């Protein structure tokens, strides 16, 4: 059984009473200087001698974030006037709220019932009633008195009679707080992954020079879009990437193909959002698919293994996408509007990004990620080195579509190999060659759009691996 | 011992008790306001009386507003009020505690 009481300083009754005196002093001061406002004194009911530690403090802060959201949702403005987050007698925060005490009390009562663990919050609502400080009780808003955590009798009775042992109470409190802390940690990881995914989108488009792709200097092969279109597109995908991360991290299901189905549902809406943001230009349609898959799979894998493991992420992806070829490519003959990848499957039997995805993105894991992780130059160089490596090993359906012939692949590989033989982007000659390739791509209107998608997911993985937060380990 | 001045200790916070001591001449009179009066009224009165007696206070008017305080809290708050009323140090007398 996990406990939240493994750290913290014991508090005796005198310390607790002294703290009550200090609290009342603050409350009275606030109401004296702001007689028309309502004061909310927020604290926790933590039984036993340990009243505060890191875990208790984060539980307190996260819960109050939720409470503050409720106030704002109700149109109420408030300021947090004072807080004692790490005080040994327990975390506390004092709010000045710009509305009547009854309405505030209704909200605090509602908050305390919102989740089982919020029952541990004690939000006192106080008002200055022509010079007298009045504390509202639950009966003022027609709420029953609080019930005991353990047995449901009136809390005051059990508290006074010490019906339940400190150990029993601590166990119950631990259980409630731990559930909430686990949830909080998952939310934090999801937010973090969302940020890294957006960074990956923006890193990719910012690297220069990239033949056949948009970069800040040149977009000759894509006249309908530029770096700004990509910024708009990247920003518009935030909500989708967050959904993808939450899906992976919150889900307890082992049914990964169902999880993928859910992701596609999100993805379809994200495509629409993207097209609105870009004025109907397809900037990231492939990335919506692949980056979404990587974000969900990485979140899922991190949640289950508590560490970064490329192989595990690959396996999760394979399980997510096990029906992809069957579902997507077997019934194409009856479909009216086909994507580039679908047309090529029918025409040349090339499975393109779907084949790559279905196999668990071998090009990313075998070539892209090791290249990016072992490079230790500036980000622009690291991204270009990885770009060349990926371009060399991928069957790029965007390239084939633009050329109208799969043979273009051989030409592409020859050009890239030449650049690499000249020393790649770390030598003058290699850089020269890369700029030349970029010009050739522009002249022939060729694109490496498929490579860009794989580059984005590779950057995402590297950002995760290189920046794992506390509680997760590198492998 | 006689009470020299009216003194107050404690707050109206939950699990606390507010004790106001003032001069009296007819033994210890306790005016108690408590939400658990029915169940614990006598016990609360006894703790207050015993604590005051330990300080040698035989005559006092006591106003007690209880918010579900435990015995140890009642005792600590009564001690603080007694010491303030007797003009002794503003720290609990540990031997009494």
From TrEMBL, chain A:
<keyword id="KW-0328">Glycosyltransferase</keyword>
<dbReference type="InterPro" id="IPR017551">
    <property type="entry name" value="TriPribosyl-deP-CoA_syn_CitG"/>
</dbReference>
<dbReference type="Pfam" id="PF03802">
    <property type="entry name" value="CitX"/>
</dbReference>
<dbReference type="GO" id="GO:0046917">
    <property type="term" value="F:triphosphoribosyl-dephospho-CoA synthase activity"/>
</dbReference>
<keyword id="KW-0547">Nucleotide-binding</keyword>
<protein>
    <recommendedName>
        <fullName>Probable 2-(5''-triphosphoribosyl)-3'-dephosphocoenzyme-A synthase</fullName>
        <ecNumber>2.4.2.52</ecNumber>
    </recommendedName>
</protein>
<dbReference type="GO" id="GO:0005524">
    <property type="term" value="F:ATP binding"/>
</dbReference>
<dbReference type="InterPro" id="IPR005551">
    <property type="entry name" value="CitX"/>
</dbReference>
<dbReference type="GO" id="GO:0016757">
    <property type="term" value="F:glycosyltransferase activity"/>
</dbReference>
<dbReference type="GO" id="GO:0050519">
    <property type="term" value="F:holo-citrate lyase synthase activity"/>
</dbReference>
<dbReference type="Pfam" id="PF01874">
    <property type="entry name" value="CitG"/>
</dbReference>
<keyword id="KW-0808">Transferase</keyword>
<keyword id="KW-0548">Nucleotidyltransferase</keyword>
<dbReference type="InterPro" id="IPR002736">
    <property type="entry name" value="CitG"/>
</dbReference>
<comment type="similarity">
    <text>Belongs to the CitG/MdcB family.</text>
</comment>
<keyword id="KW-0067">ATP-binding</keyword>
<dbReference type="GO" id="GO:0051191">
    <property type="term" value="P:prosthetic group biosynthetic process"/>
</dbReference>
UniProtKB/TrEMBL annotation, chain B:
<protein>
    <recommendedName>
        <fullName>Citrate lyase acyl carrier protein</fullName>
    </recommendedName>
</protein>
<dbReference type="Pfam" id="PF06857">
    <property type="entry name" value="ACP"/>
</dbReference>
<comment type="subunit">
    <text>Oligomer with a subunit composition of (alpha,beta,gamma)6.</text>
</comment>
<comment type="function">
    <text>Covalent carrier of the coenzyme of citrate lyase.</text>
</comment>
<comment type="similarity">
    <text>Belongs to the CitD family.</text>
</comment>
<dbReference type="GO" id="GO:0016829">
    <property type="term" value="F:lyase activity"/>
</dbReference>
<dbReference type="InterPro" id="IPR006495">
    <property type="entry name" value="CitD"/>
</dbReference>
<dbReference type="GO" id="GO:0005737">
    <property type="term" value="C:cytoplasm"/>
</dbReference>
<keyword id="KW-0456">Lyase</keyword>
<dbReference type="InterPro" id="IPR023439">
    <property type="entry name" value="Mal_deCO2ase/Cit_lyase_ACP"/>
</dbReference>
<keyword id="KW-0597">Phosphoprotein</keyword>
<keyword id="KW-0963">Cytoplasm</keyword>
<feature type="modified residue" description="O-(phosphoribosyl dephospho-coenzyme A)serine">
    <location>
        <position position="14"/>
    </location>
</feature>
